[in-house]
Design a protein that fits this description.
Elements: H1 12-16, E1 28-29, H2 39-63, H3 75-81, H4 86-110, E2 115-116, H5 119-129, H6 137-173, H7 175-180, H8 201-218, H9 223-240, H10 250-254, H11 259-266, H12 282-287, H13 295-298, H14 306-328
Antiparallel strand pairs: 1-2
Length: 329
């Protein structure tokens, strides 16, 4: 019982029920998830692969017009309103990934070698000290093996949201910080997937690399938990900027902070709101920075449909044109 598998071992109950002496164990190096690639390095590579793969998926949909009915903005609007070329976006994203990899490599070299073999002893200790009698050994095994990891990752989500909301809002409140750093990201008035990490290098490091890395350190995530956190957070960020409201998109229906929610922030009229990213919206709610729709849209705020959002944008544009015509006459 030196390592933990995907299902509880058959003799789990007999081992955990011992009261006289704890189970013996030997700590060994944890085998790599993919042979030959250390888990710590996989945690660096996997989010980069996920970014380019997922962004390319949306790029193909965009180029070949495979989901026009779910597009938030017309493609012509993307070309006319954005103030930066695709080549410039790709260049800055590559730069951020280079910085991210260098920093991650440094942290990886300082991390201890992942080990295994002690898990059954820790489960035994939990059974003897804390676990109530009605909690079965199988439930305890699942909680220890997967439940604790899930809790740590969710806590990391909350940390990242707090970190990014704070820095993101400061970047908007302080005019110098906005002009010097954050305005670069807002050259994309109509977001698209490749532009998810289009940032000034300093902002990209502080907002994404440092924030996610600190979340991992604060909550003591293992290399495999880091793989899940970094990859999931990366894909969520790409999805928030994808420019589509796909009905089968997990991120779109699982989180109130989605592509439409973030698209509002990229519009001139919504730039002072919806600072929360990338998972939840509770900081916007708490500090009153969530964009308030007109009354008929308020009930749909969390998961507003694409149709209703388009109607809202059209009404806003019509009102703008009417005001312009009135001013000219």
């Amino acid at each position: 019982m030196a390592t933990i598998g995907f299902v509880p071992p058959q003799n789990l109950s007999s081992v955990l029920s011992r009261t006289t002496a704890p189970p013996e164990y030997v700590v060994v190096k944890r085998p790599d998830l993919i042979a030959g690639i250390p888990d710590g390095l996989l945690a660096l590579v996997s989010p980069i692969i996920a970014y380019w793969t997922y962004a390319t998926f949306f790029h193909i949909i965009d180029v070949y017009q495979l989901a026009e009915k779910y597009r938030i903005h017309p493609s012509a609007e993307e070309e006319s309103r954005n103030k930066v070329t695709l080549q410039e976006v790709l260049r800055d994203v590559i730069l951020q990934h280079v910085v991210q990899t260098i920093v991650g490599w440094g942290v990886y070299k300082l991390d201890p070698v992942p080990t295994t073999g002690f898990e059954i002893y820790e489960m035994w200790w939990l059974r003897q000290k804390y676990a109530p009698a009605f909690v079965s050994d199988t439930v305890l095994w699942w909680a220890y093996t997967y439940g604790f990891s899930l809790i740590r990752i969710v806590l990391a989500f909350c940390f990242i949201d707090t970190w990014q909301y704070t820095l993101h809002r400061i970047m908007h409140v302080n005019k110098w910080l906005y002009r010097r750093f954050h305005s670069r990201h807002h050259r994309l008035y109509v977001p698209y997937a490749y532009g998810a990490l289009y940032n000034d290098p300093v902002e990209g490091f502080l907002l994404d690399t440092a924030g996610t890395g600190l979340a991992s350190i604060v909550f003591g995530l293992t290399p495999r938990e880091n793989i899940c956190l970094y990859t999931f957070a990366t894909m969520k960020t790409v999805d928030d900027h994808c420019g589509y409201r796909l009905p089968f998109d997990f991120f779109q229906w699982a989180f109130p902070n989605n592509s439409i929610y973030h698209d509002i922030h990229h519009q001139i009229w919504g730039i002072k709101s919806n600072f929360s990213q990338p998972f939840f919206t509770f900081w916007d709610r708490l500090f009153g920075t969530r964009y308030e729709f007109v009354n008929e849209y308020k009930t749909m705020q969390d998961h507003i449909t694409l149709t209703k959002y388009r109607e809202f944008l059209q009404a806003k544009e019509a009102k703008k044109r009417a005001a312009k015509q009135k001013k000219e006459t």
